Amino acid sequence: MKVSHKLFGLISVAMFSLFVLTACANETEEETVAETPVELKVPVAFGTNLPSLGDGILYISERIESLSGGSLTMTVYEPGKLVAANEILDSVSTGKINAGYATAGYWVGKMPAAPLFSAVPFGPDAAEYLAWLYYDDGMDLYQQMYDDAGYNVHVLLAAIIPPETSGWFADEINSTDDLDGLRMRFFGLGAEVMQKFGVQTSLLPGGEIFAALEKGAIDATEFSLPVVDQRLGFHKLVKHNYFPGWHQQATTFELLINKDVWNGMSERQRMTLEVIAKASVADSFAHGEALEGAEIKRNVTEFGVTNHYWSDEMLAEYKAAWLEVVEEQKADPFFKKVWDDFSAFDEEYKYWSSIGYLPRPEPPN
């Protein structure tokens, strides 16, 4: 029931967004002709063949020309075809390319606060994340992070996906002692948590994970939603899939646009991008939610996967380690600023989230 309430809100945003876009598209021909056409060439960090995770940008690229009256077009380039995924931010900022699609957590080596805008361990689900980003200080802080670090980019939130799985393992994990010494692919701030338990973490691109597991370069992995992990074939090599994804209850994706290009657009072009990006956020979340149940069931019935739910004791240990990581990361002033801002929002939001929704149902047999 909780999911349906949130989907209703997101779908309402999408309907409103499309209404506004239709109005934009019906502007006079003279106004359209007066605009300078802009082609956004967008390299992506994730293959567009990956549902919800990678194809969110296609929602925008397939509609932007029609909805802008032809003044905006977008060409999407698969990972590595134009620039490498880890070069997207720098390339957009310098003007080598005029746009890019990625997730902010990839830039943690450049800006310690960046992962707070992509996925927060034990943090917000999609509903709370969007509330903070859109209706509190989230998006302003997000843009400020890039500005203060000297990046010449404008950021738009372009997608959000549901919780990820917590990891794929060859053997059962019955205590945090079982994690010690494992080599594991892990993303973002969650990797800092896993390191507290002796896990050797690495951030491999999605397309390299299967081969690393197969060759024994890593022992375990997390990556994305069940439907995405299934497409990448992890179930063929490791059969124990753990939930919940405490490290990524929601994950956001960004459309970065070179700021000179953004400032050179007409007000109508900028509004079109802002509104279609919001519609894409709603679509990506709904798409992800729609796919997961069938894929989890298929993993069990067809592929022999065993699903596990972390014990309360292990979740408590993960959370305690996460709070240690937070204290360490707060040495960075901007991380502290963002964390304190979100924490204040979260404290107030809990008055609502703690009583507003029905409990989750038990899993079916």
TrEMBL record:
It holds the Pfam family DctP. CDD domains: PBP2_TRAP_ketoacid_lactate_like. One of its GO terms (cellular component) is tripartite ATP-independent periplasmic transporter complex. Keywords: Signal. One of its GO terms (biological process) is transmembrane transport. The keyword 4Fe-4S does not apply. The keyword Transmembrane does not apply. PANTHER family: EXTRACYTOPLASMIC SOLUTE RECEPTOR PROTEIN, PTHR33376. This is C4-dicarboxylate ABC transporter. The lineage of its organism: unclassified sequences, metagenomes, ecological metagenomes.
